[in-house]
């Protein structure tokens, strides 16, 4: 497997909404109405800066943003975090980049004193690799909500504890 050198950054740049849209669209995994949500969170961070509840890790290779995570503290918890988004551009999937970006996110959440992080995904068959990704990373399936996204498409909640 080709080794890709990643540079990480936490600050949001003006071009990131476009990059996030391109990454999300490249995967073929998301509903059309989900992609604007991912973009909106980046735009929120651009607009509100440190006041935004959304935090990001952007992974770049050869000057191009190829993966990212969006995470944040869960209001009302002492030290819980949500992993709102993790996306690797389809051209770079299967190269271990998602794992590297998630490890970087875990490191930061740990530094912030986080005790756990929740990742959610769909029950649809096409998300089997996503579920396997979380399980292989040490996440545990702790909840399922049937028919969450649409009838027949439930939500699974995976938890990683530090």
CATH architecture of the domain at 7-114: 3-Layer(aba) Sandwich
Strand percentage:
25-35%
Q: Mean of residue pLDDT?
A: 96
Helix content: 25-40%
Structural class: alpha+beta
Strand tally is 7
Radius of gyration, in Å, reads 15 Å
Q: What's the CATH H-level superfamily name of the domain at 7-114? A: Gcn5-related N-acetyltransferase (GNAT)
Q: How many distinct helices? A: 4
By CATH, the topology of the domain at 7-114 is Aminopeptidase
The rough form would be described as globular
Biggest sheet overview = 7 strands, mixed
CATH class of the domain at 7-114: Alpha Beta
Describe this structure in words.
It is built from four helices and seven strands; from the N terminus they run E-H-H-E-E-E-H-E-H-E-E. It is an alpha+beta fold and 162 residues long. It has a domain at 7-114: Gcn5-related N-acetyltransferase (GNAT) (Aminopeptidase). A seven-stranded mixed beta sheet has the order 1-2-3-4-5-7-6, sandwiched between helices. A hairpin with a 2-residue loop joins strand 2 and strand 3 (64-73).
Provide a concise account of the structure shown.
With 162 residues, the protein is α+β, with helices and mostly antiparallel strands.
């Amino acid at each position: 497997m080709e080794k890709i050198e990643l540079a990480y950054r936490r600050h949001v740049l003006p071009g990131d909404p476009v990059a996030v849209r391109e990454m999300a669209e490249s995967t073929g995994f998301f509903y059309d109405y989900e992609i604007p949500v991912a973009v909106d969170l980046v735009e929120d961070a651009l607009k509100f800066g440190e006041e935004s509840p959304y935090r990001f890790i952007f992974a770049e290779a050869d000057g191009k943003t190829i993966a990212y995570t969006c995470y944040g503290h869960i209001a009302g918890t002492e030290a819980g975090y949500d992993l709102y988004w993790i996306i690797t551009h389809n051209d770079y999937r299967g190269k271990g980049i998602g794992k590297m970006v998630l490890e970087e996110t875990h490191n930061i959440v740990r530094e912030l004193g986080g005790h756990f992080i929740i990742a959610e995904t769909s029950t649809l068959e096409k998300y089997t690799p996503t579920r396997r990704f979380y399980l292989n990373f040490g996440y545990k399936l702790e909840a399922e909500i049937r028919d969450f996204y649409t009838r027949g498409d439930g939500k699974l909640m995976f938890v990683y504890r530090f």
